[in-house]
Amino acid sequence: MKLKVLTVGDLETNCYLLVDEAARQAAVIDPGDEADRILKAQQDLHAKLIYIINTHGHGDHIGANSAVAQATGAKILIHRADAPKLNNPYLNLSSSFGWEIISPPADRILEDKDTIQLGKLEIEVIHTPGHTEGGITLKVNQVLFTGDTLFASGIGRTDLPGGSYQRLISSIKTRLLIFPDETAIYPGHGESSTIGRERRENPFIGSVSV
Fold first, then answer.
1. Residue 207 lies in a domain
2. Which of 35, 119, 141, 185 has fewest C-beta within 10 Å?
3. Which residue in 98, 58, 165 sits closest to 156, CA to CA?
4. Between vectors from CA 100 to CA 58 and to CA 83, what angle results, nearest 5°?
5. Judging by DSSP bridges, how do beta strands 143-147 and 184-187 pair with one another?
6. Which residue, 13, 18, 24, is CA-closest to 184?
7. Is 96 exposed, middle or buried (0-12, 13-18, 19+ CB in 10 A)?
8. Residue 20 pairs with which residues in a beta bridge?
């Protein structure tokens, strides 16, 4: 597995290019902006882009969906509960920033415990609502792509439409902290971390009983 990290857009969203090197197949997680940079990185990796996977439907995570899909033919995947956000600037909140982002609709609707096959890599879908209703974490081997659910020493906002602090903390405690300490975390914003570090140091983890 090869991983390329790009930080894109005004909100500095982490966009991840995941590659199965044997099959030369790639998936992009959260192409939030700067489609040209994403496409160049994909070409430099010499891998065919098969999937665009959105961890949730906010504008800063879906902003380059359309351009990347049009250029590559990659299929767009998102959880059922966030699929309506893709082509609605009010629901994906881009209208609040004056962007008016409209993504093509999902080619595949994701549910909890689904798997996405990328060459020989198996991407597991973990429904982790709280930041949005349809927020997901993606597990690949011993790596978690947590979107805006869990950050290094932080958590995603819960004061936006569809957010719930109680539900987010529950998602983290019951769906993510079950993994071993050495499990890597690659969040939607900010630096990477591990489950062990967040278990020990994240000030939000012990704040609510589940």
1. no
2. 141
3. 165
4. 40
5. parallel
6. 18
7. exposed
8. 25
Q: For the chain, what is the domain count?
A: 1
> Residue 152 and residue 17: Cα distance in Å, rounded?
20
Contact (Cβ atoms closer than 8 angstroms) between residue 196 and residue 150? no
* Average predicted confidence (pLDDT) for the chain: 95
Give residue 31's domain range.
2-201
The answer to whether position 113 is within a domain reads yes
CA distances from 137 to 22, 54, 60, 146, 195 (A): 24, 10, 17, 5, 13
Q: What is the pLDDT of residue 210?
A: 47
> In sequence order, which residues have a C-beta less than 8 Å from that of residue 120 and are 6 or more positions away?
20, 22, 23
Q: Is residue 2 classed exposed, middle or buried when 0-12, 13-18 and 19+ CB atoms within 10 A define those classes?
A: exposed
Q: In which band, very low, low, confident or very high, does the pLDDT at 206 lie, cut at 50, 70 and 90?
A: low
Distances (CA, A) of 25 to 20, 34, 55, 123: 5, 21, 19, 13
What CATH code is carried by the domain that includes residue 84? 3.60.15.10
User: Does residue 181 lie in a domain region?
Assistant: yes
Q: Is 73 exposed, middle or buried (0-12, 13-18, 19+ CB in 10 A)?
A: exposed
Question: Is pLDDT above 80 for 124?
Answer: yes
Measure the CA–CA gap between 111 and 61, rounded to whole angstroms. 19
